[in-house]
Amino acid sequence: CFVCCVVSVVLVCPVQERGALGFERHYHVTDPFIRRLGLEAELQGHSGCVNCLEWNEKGDLLASGSDDQHTIVWDPLHHKKLLSMHTGHTANIFSVKFLPHSGDRILITGAADSKVHVHDLTVKETVHMFGDHTNRVKRIATAPMWPNTFWSAAEDGLIRQYDLRENSKRSEVLIDLTEYCGQLVEAKCLTVNPQDNNYLAVGASGPFVRLYDIRMIHNHRKSMKQSPSAGVHTFCDRQKPLPDGAAQYYVAGHLPVKLPDYNNRLRVLVATYVTFSPDGTELLVNMGGEQVYLFDLTYKQRPYTFLLPKKCHTSGEVQNGKTSTNGVSNGIHLHSNGFRLSEGRAHVSPQVELPPYLERIKQQANEAFACQLWTQAIQLYSKAVQKAPNNAMLYGNRAAAYMKRKWDGDHYDALRDCLKAISLNPCHLKAHFRLARCLFELKYVAEALECLDDFKGKFPEQAHSSACDALDRDINAALFSKSDNAEDKKGGGPIRLRATGRKDSISEDEMVLRERSYDYKFRYCGHCNTTTDIKEANFFGSNAQYIVSGSDDGSFFIWEKETTNLVRVLQGDESIVNCLQPHPSYCFLATSGIDPVVRLWNPRPESETLNGRVVVDMEGASQANQRRMNADPLEVMLLNMGYRITGLTSGGAGGSDDEDSSEGQVQCRPS
């Protein structure tokens, strides 16, 4: 097989071991390999859904856990089952982990019976059984710096810590989410930063992802031990569960505002998987009920909102992205509890033309836009943006494509692009107008009116265009309506802070942490994550060049990390792909789902016949998944039966900057 060939090459090459390992890990996942990725083997041995996979550190062992309550350790390079044992669990296994520095001898499992078991593989025995959780255990996390310690996340809202050096058969509560979010909160996933094991990321019910400093929590616990009210088996104090600065929150900026609408439609938002990039600087989240998000932990940014330069030139030569600028300092962001206009004034620099090859890509994107191929246009604009990140026109055009496509989160990405375009060119006419439309679509109605009034003041010749008049009517109709959303905006503070019921009430500390949350850097679309709450998304490649995610349609999706473009879709299961675990050193991927098998994927030989598992129509698969996420149960059933459901409607706020439109003067070609 491909992997065995790689191993033999590495062994015979007269290169120092360290240099060979560095070369191998740097080039083990490349674009040609991704485009040749195909099924190598199916590992059969389980009799139920395979809910979790885990490589050992060397990558020569793969552990799996299943609904059959068994764990199997495989030799994946030779497709052999090395060991199978009943774990002692009485319900589905959801997580399996090798304990670091145990010589791959100790394996930990967590299951739906609320138990955590520790197994010695050399004797095939369960040596520890922990029963402190009161609801399903969804994830186990380990860390090399803590060789005898591990953590669990369960649906009782608790994060527990275990130390196998202690004789006690009990664990201690590290984090109690119920003290912050009420009794209904459920912890779903957790992971430890591979470069700094003091940081623990936790995903739970709701759109917020939490990052905790374990060291600060430990120090807080030690200081609390002097207090007579401190619990014996808890790190948390009732008056102060966590010390200030021990937690940071991350959220896709549009989701808190969308949450009431999702709740009304019984659409659940829950983080089903979290993981760090290999260098520990990025956090990837598979948000159940929505998309996959990547958060930058180094260059953090607040959620984007309405922010416009107060003054700008009005010459036709600098409208619609025809110039680039130095931008507005510190980006475009604000806390979500209000909007304001910037007091700064951006400097307009001379026009910077795109190089010929990027101009061709932009023209291809414009042609795709004209043919209403919104996703293709977005991907081409994104490809150009990666190479020319300071070109205002590219951001403005991509915003228009997002607004036409109207997938979940598209209007917020469009808003971000509009603000970026305006920061680069404060007199980008179409970006100003599209910004007002985005604010309206995102339910920031008063802010949309303010933005539209500002637009009319800056561009008086467009003040009475048909597009302007139409948006003005929409905004005023919304302002005078007595909708629930309008009432929600008036009282009780920002939408992002409030709970949905009495048992779901949140604390003041939680409100503060949510208000200080950070926004995402990249968003990945195409998959569907609504049916299971264990669906994973992972980095693929030592440099995290790609993002992979399972999906409810039985496929798994692969995106370029930096462009967010979808590059490969493969059929990985007859029903649902839940687990995707990349090999630590090779271009080798293990997947599992509802089928009782583990599938192994690697680059297939060029001489091999056509890969029957490749989903050629990636655009069609992505559109079907967007419909699936927004459909009611009957529509999903019909979709599974093969009936065609009407697609998403088109519409929006005008064409790209090089494309004519009949929606009003403001949407026409550049002045």
Automatic annotation (TrEMBL):
Keywords, alphabetical: Repeat, WD repeat
UniProt KW Repeat keyword: yes
Gene3D superfamilies assigned: Tetratricopeptide repeat domain, YVTN repeat-like/Quinoprotein amine dehydrogenase
Record GO cellular component, one term: cytoplasm
Domain of life, per lineage: Eukaryota
Repeat (WD) residue spans along the chain: 43-75, 86-129, 540-569, 570-611
Region (Disordered): 650-671
Protein name, per record: WDTC1 protein
Source organism: Neopipo cinnamomea
